[in-house]
Amino acid sequence: MPSPSVSIKDVAKRARVSVATVSRALNDKGPVKDETKQRILEAAEALRYVPHGAARSLITNRTHTIGVLLPDVYGEFFSELIRGIDTTARRAGYHLLVSGFHSAPGEVEAVLRAMRGRVDGLVAMSPDVGPETLRRNLPESLPLVLLNGSPEAKAHGFTGIRIDNLGGALAMGRHLIGLGHRAIAFLAGPEANRDAEERRRGFREALDEAGLVALPALELAGDFTEESGYRAGRELLALPLRPTAIFAANDSMAIGCLLALREAGVRVPEDSALGGFDDIPISRFISPPLTTVRVAIADLGTRAMERLLLAFAGSVGEPLEELAPATLIVRGSCGAGNGPEATRADSNPPFSSTFDRTREGDRSR
Amino acid sequence: MPSPSVSIKDVAKRARVSVATVSRALNDKGPVKDETKQRILEAAEALRYVPHGAARSLITNRTHTIGVLLPDVYGEFFSELIRGIDTTARRAGYHLLVSGFHSAPGEVEAVLRAMRGRVDGLVAMSPDVGPETLRRNLPESLPLVLLNGSPEAKAHGFTGIRIDNLGGALAMGRHLIGLGHRAIAFLAGPEANRDAEERRRGFREALDEAGLVALPALELAGDFTEESGYRAGRELLALPLRPTAIFAANDSMAIGCLLALREAGVRVPEDSALGGFDDIPISRFISPPLTTVRVAIADLGTRAMERLLLAFAGSVGEPLEELAPATLIVRGSCGAGNGPEATRADSNPPFSSTFDRTREGDRSR
DNA sequence: TCCCGTGATGTAAACGTTTCCACCCTGACA
DNA sequence: TGTCAGGGTGGAAACGTTTACATCACGGGA
Q1: What is this structure's pTM?
Q2: CA–CA separation, A14 vs A12, rounded Å?
Q3: N or C end of chain B, less CB within 10 A?
């Protein structure tokens, strides 16, 4: 059970030099005679020596690891984000210490504290956790990038990256209005969710621009699940005056809604246009393919990591807030393909874009 | 830039005791007078003291971290696996050091070596990397669980967990044959891929059982992508004698194939039955919903982690090999819903199962 | 010939913990 | 009153590195 691990001393002994020389030889620091160096490398090889990370971190004060703190490790969003962070991190020689946390009371604190001395920096996504909690449980000096944090985080001295929910929803709203729709239903996300709220605001803004009013009857509650989208769809069907278009605050709800419509024989997009948000992979495979707003998630991770690397390089700078773009993806479900915008729709067929996406992250940015 | 971090010494000074006492008080080891303990806790609180992980690891030889090594951090498989490992790990107080590696020559080695002194155990998925490479770059004593490794890994003294590809494919083959199909096409996966190979073997076994012969013309090459499934579908369409059923070695290919068939006006399942493997989330949303084989990925991660925990607890035992179940999921694409097996299909409607799945991992096992 | 710079190496301190050991004190027991 | 047990505490070693500093030999320039 006790690890009979070989340490630098063993290498030193075998190569008949001091540990200092071994360290120098292995790290290419300071002068070492070629002959000695050769002997040391051979000894290390023979003994299968691997330096002890913790010991090294202790003295160098560098772990070459960055922590990633996420509310839940679930689904495509998570894996995409990690992928974005990981590729950038690895390229720079960093590893990832990943930790999800559930909403259990003291859990965030516990996880945060566990990070001390194990990471050089932190990427945290904290929808619930306030900036104060973060700072209280973290060493003052730890570089930190907040993902989708509250807008006031900047004021607290945090640098963060947020998704441009507002811009994306605005684009979708404009698009639907541009297609001639006037009565547009909105399936909202969870009350407390910041993304959901921003998307609602973006949609409202589009309405305002066009001089349309938001009818309370056309704004339905949802919670980002397919099920809630399905329920909302049935509610819409029961309305005396049905909307000609529906904008769901995320793709899952849009899909649930689509099922409800289809069950009732309502055709999409002929009878009702439909738009979503997120561009989850399923979206391009359902029929009709879903018009949605793409969030470059992997890119989000990449940007966060790059910020951290910048901080490591010493250029601290003042806390910034960056917006990750959210771009409209026009597919079949909005009916643009039947109208004058057919070319735009054609330029993004569901199939070829699938293959594009496969390696998207590798060439992101 | 240098971290003005507060250490145990600062706490000791403030509480007017020795560092030894602070350590004892904070870890509840050895006797400390209540009054002193109180003073120490207050001091720690006031200074926002957080123990230094690396330093602690150095002396205790425990990092409370386990390494996860994956060939690629991409897609649903990855996130599900991580989720399975993470939930189990966190419950036991462990963190995850995640590292993907690309196929660059020395990269696996580099990543492996970086793990020394940073992890207490390792979960590795190594389709390409041989057992020898692993051992050569890892301390002898490090507990290791291999995911989907080669069957001979066990002989090398590794304990591993593999997906029951053979059993799953066998079940699918039996199912299709049971529905009366005699000419069944098989879309194979990548040549070198072990999973793909095992699935092929399972299918062949089902044919053998039924006294059917595998026609070379009905076995098409593929590489697990939608595109290759699409190509295979077109090849099948060009065949003089078309198969009445198609079994694709994974869902992505099945979906690509489905598109090819649909383009040609071939109806599924009326004109041709279709089966896949993996049960990726899209599968239940396409129309018709795809009959497939579900692999409990999160469960795979959970099992791996449990093995590791067992090893930490000291019960080393001989290297075992565990098989993670792969179960047949009957949906519409195989046509069972139209036949005598309608009840089985109904018991698994695409929608309710979606919601089931949402929290599947939390109650796995 | 002397001095000094420089390359090659070793010694030892330091990083922040945990833990073994020794010490002191108090009280109980003989 | 002496001894012993044991609670409470501090000193110091140890973990495996890196690195500042010291040492030494050697060679070149004055």
Answers
A1: 0.80
A2: 6
A3: N
Report the SS3 class of residue A260.
helix
Q: How far is CA B208 from CA A276, B194, B212, B242, B300, in A?
A: 48, 21, 6, 21, 30
Q: Which of A10, A48, A251, A355 to mutate to test the interface with B (most CBs of B within 10 A)?
A: A48
Q: Which two tokens stand for residue B108?
A: 């696996």
3-state secondary structure of B97: strand
pLDDT in tens, chain A (365 residues): 334 589 999 999 999 999 999 999 999 988 899 999 999 999 999 998 999 999 999 999 999 999 998 877 666 778 889 989 999 998 998 999 998 877 666 777 888 888 888 999 999 987 667 777 777 777 777 898 998 777 777 777 788 898 999 999 999 999 999 999 999 999 999 988 888 999 999 999 999 999 999 999 999 999 988 889 999 999 999 999 899 999 999 998 999 999 899 889 999 999 999 999 999 877 877 778 899 999 888 899 999 999 999 988 876 666 778 889 999 999 999 988 643 333 333 333 334 333 333 333 333 32
Give the confidence band of B64 by pLDDT, cuts at 50, 70, 90.
very high
Q: Find residues 126-165 of chain A whose CB sits inside 8 Å of chain B.
A: 136-142
Cβ-nearest to B116 among A51, A141, A281:
A51
Report the distance from CA of residue B20 to the C1' of nucleotide C23 in Å, as an integer: 15
Residues with CB under 7 A from strand D: A 5, 7-9, 19-20, 23-24, 26-27, 29, 49-52, 55-56, 58-60; B 16-21, 24, 30-33, 35-37, 55, 58-59, 117
Cα A122 to Cα B190: distance, rounded to the nearest angstrom: 38
| Mean pLDDT, residues B47-70 | 93
Which runs of E-coded beta strand occur in chain A? 65-70, 95-100, 121-125, 144-147, 159-163, 184-187, 219-220, 245-248, 273-275, 292-295, 321-324, 326-329
Distance in angstroms (rounded) separating the CA atoms of residues B233 and B220 = 9
Environment class of B127 (CB within 10 Å of its CB; exposed 0-12, middle 13-18, buried 19+): middle
pLDDT at residue B207 in the model = 97
Closest by CA position to A70, among listed A95, A44, A100, A92: A100
Could you identify the residue written with the tokens 């399936």? A187
Contact A162, A149 (CB under 8 A): yes
> How would you class B109 by CB atoms within 10 Å of its CB: exposed for 0-12, middle for 13-18, buried for 19 or more?
middle
Q: How confident is the model at residue B158 (pLDDT cuts 50, 70, 90)?
A: confident
Chain B touched by A60 (CB under 8 Å): no
Residue with tokens 């985080």: A153
Strand C and A20 CB separated by under 7 Å: yes
Cβ of B31 under 8 Å from any chain A Cβ?
no
Segment (H or E) for B273: strand B273-275
- Residue B73: predicted pLDDT: 67
Asked if the C-beta of B362 comes within 8 angstroms of chain A's C-beta atoms, the answer is no
Counting every residue, how long is chain B?
Answer: 365
Three-state secondary-structure class, residue A332: helix
Nearest Cα to Cα of residue B173 among B140, B208, B149 = B208
Query: How does the average pLDDT of chain B come out, rounded?
Result: 84
Q: Which residue among B3, B79, B227 places its CB closest to the CB of A79?
A: B79
In 10 A of CB A197, how many CB atoms? 17
> CA–C1' span, A20 to D24, in Å?
16
